[in-house]
């Protein structure tokens, strides 16, 4: 593969930031199984080196990696991503938990027992310059795995190393050069060649492109994809660049303060994130389209990330979450599968699909003048909503009627507001019912006191119609 062809592919990735349209691989059986993984670093102080505290770098992780798939691990700096990768490689001893590789538990094995197994899992380090010995040539560095595992490749070590250098885009003539003679991207290619020397099954890449330029990043990312397609590799890619993770990963796990808060398929997580922290991360991804950039909402989290020495109780994100409630401070949410292959650790997840037949209560706040309660208390969406829409609530307004002295003996009374076109002799059913009720109350008062009762706020009119069988004046029309 030529550098010119690779550079052309890199331009497309850098400009669009979208994953390739090619179909992804179908994952096989579980290759790596992690359960309850924890790593606590003790803090010691004083001359006696007494234990003054504990840094909970990783505090209970559960995830699986299947054969042939790529799991991306993202999160803020200091959340425990690199510590997780080093524990999977057994470069750090876990405080608790189990790490199974190919069905075999690695946590209880000694260094001697691990050595023959290390040919099946290798690591690409974050800083290519510090991961290469400056006193050794490239041929010695890349050929070291063969010597440590006592493997003699066909044709000799030198021929195998030159083939690996050509595979990662370097020249076989670089065999006798030293690391300081290469650029940053070329040094990272040397690290990739060393990791692929024994044809491992699992490669843990700890931020493999974070120290490189953007154009070189695209070259290395495309190289990792090509090598995976050619050799059927399984990747655990640790990064904080969400665009790189989307381009390379099949599934993505989001970490926050030592815990996984969400894990899902790539497209599902990027199009419909459910944990509030993931939503905030996605809003920070740069968008090349100015129209889309202006239309989306940028979520700015308040406060700093809490210290891993003293993490918040229960949900560790509740100190910065805009949806936090009392339960978030007292009960830790489990990492549960809310939808297919989508696990979230949150009491109030975002972007949840609405359940069929479930309605929300809609409160109508329209009040009558002088009243204390709403005209309609609540209408359940889906049940009674159509009836409420056909007969909207009416506001009752008392309008005084002109007296004959002011408007003349023959002047008809002015109709009340909202009653134009209605015949006064035919009151509505609502008016008749209310008039009947008021008439019964007035008759009760008259029978007890012997004095006719008057309804406050009403002005009698000669031309006003009277309800049948009642001596009290009716109320005005609504």
TrEMBL record:
Stored Gene3D superfamilies: P-loop containing nucleotide triphosphate hydrolases
Q: Keywords for this entry?
A: ATP-binding, Nucleotide-binding, Transport
Q: Pfam families in the record, alphabetically?
A: ABC_tran (PF00005), oligo_HPY (PF08352)
Does Metal-binding count among this protein's keywords? no
Tell me yes or no: is Transport among this UniProt entry's keywords.
yes
**Swiss-Prot/TrEMBL GO biological process terms:** peptide transport; transmembrane transport
GO function term, MF aspect, one: ATP hydrolysis activity
Could you tell me which residue ranges the ABC transporter domain spans? Answer: 32-282
List every stretch annotated Disordered. Answer: 1-27, 386-478
SUPFAM superfamilies per UniProt: P-loop containing nucleoside triphosphate hydrolases
Matching entries from NCBIfam families are given as:
oligo_HPY (TIGR01727)
- Similarity comment text for this entry: Belongs to the ABC transporter superfamily.
**PANTHER family for the chain:** D,D-DIPEPTIDE TRANSPORT ATP-BINDING PROTEIN DDPF-RELATED (PTHR43776:SF7), TRANSPORT ATP-BINDING PROTEIN (PTHR43776)
Q: What is this protein called?
A: Dipeptide/oligopeptide/nickel ABC transporter ATP-binding protein
